[in-house]
Design a protein that fits this description.
Blueprint: H1 4-17, E1 23-28, H2 41-44, E2 50-56, E3 59-64, E4 68-73, E5 78-83, E6 93-99, E7 102-108, E8 114-122, E9 131-133, H3 150-157, H4 164-168, H5 179-189, H6 202-221, E10 263-267, E11 270-274
Antiparallel strand pairs: 1-6, 2-3, 3-4, 4-8, 5-7, 6-7, 8-9, 10-11
Helix pairs in contact: 1-6, 3-6, 5-6
């Protein structure tokens, strides 16, 4: 599933290619791609211009000229592709929209993703007047947002009795972190994924969140992490951070820090990769 770096790469691409352009004809080719809407996207989007973009955690949106937003849920396999009209011929094309003199295509092999038209409201976490879609207010700030409280979030982590891996994936506590970057952050901080979050020292919880941000920043520099063709940017290109991973997906390979073979364990139904020798906290 695309995590914060991958979603941010897509948002930046959309900011470069669709802001200032106006929607023309919109075709919904699979009903699941437009589920959850109280309006017909094929009727409401034509004639609206894209005035900006936004993101919180794994959620991204296009700001529209009528004051609303088009929230894009990539989920497991969603792709936002920008190109010439008719260029995308994938059998998994779910929504096709003309925009300016080009086309915006939503491709989603597993049909978990969607486009949703939503009201923009004042962000309750930001008194400076930032506006976010009403449908993402349940999501906590991510580590790149001004509203993110590093120390406060670390304290909240330490109130949880769940495993650290599970807590890092809780989008109501801190958003944007998925299994890949949770494993990488725990490896960097030396924290065992099965450790109970409430047993962490405050400084260890702070460091874990700092490492989460640091590894996602490095992933952003390399266009995100791609293991297959399901994640690509708006031009169809893959990211290269998979070459820099230290833990995720490396079970049986030597730890880059101590040489011990890495292990895979299951934490609350999710695979987690760690070094049994140097992840001791």
């Amino acid at each position: 599933m695309p995590e914060l770096p991958e979603v941010e790469v897509v948002r930046r691409g959309l900011a470069d290619h669709v802001v200032g352009r106006t929607f023309g004809t919109v075709e919904v080719l699979h009903p699941r791609a437009a589920r959850g809407n109280s309006v017909d996207l094929t009727q409401v989007l034509p004639g609206l211009s894209v005035t900006g973009t936004g993101r919180r955690g794994k959620f991204l949106w296009l700001e529209l000229s009528d004051g609303a937003a088009l929230v894009v849920h990539l989920r497991m396999s969603g792709q936002m592709l920008v190109g010439q009209p008719g260029a995308v011929r994938s059998p998994h094309l779910r929504i096709r929209a003309s925009i300016g003199d080009g086309e915006l295509a939503f491709v989603d092999q597993r049909t978990f993703g969607s486009w949703q038209y939503a009201a923009l409201i004042d962000d309750p976490l930001m008194p400076t007047g930032r506006r976010i879609p009403a449908t993402v207010t349940h999501v906590a700030p991510d580590p790149f947002e001004p509203a993110f409280d590093l120390v406060g979030t670390a304290r909240l982590m330490r109130k949880r009795n769940s495993a650290v891996k599970t807590v890092l994936l809780d989008q109501s506590l801190v958003s944007g972190i998925g299994s890949i970057y949770a494993d990488e952050a725990m490896w960097a901080a030396g924290v065992k994924p099965t450790r109970r979050a409430r047993s962490l020292r405050q400084r260890d919880a702070v460091r874990l969140l700092e490492e989460s941000r640091a590894v996602m920043a490095r992933a952003l520099e390399q266009g995100g992490t791609s293991f297959d063709s399901l994640y690509v940017n708006v031009n169809g290109a893959s990211g290269y951070f998979s070459r820099s991973l230290n833990a995720y997906g490396r079970a049986g390979l030597p730890c880059a820090r101590c040489g011990t073979p890495l292990r895979r364990v299951v934490v609350n139904g999710r695979s987690s990769h760690h070094c049994p020798e140097c992840q001791v906290l």
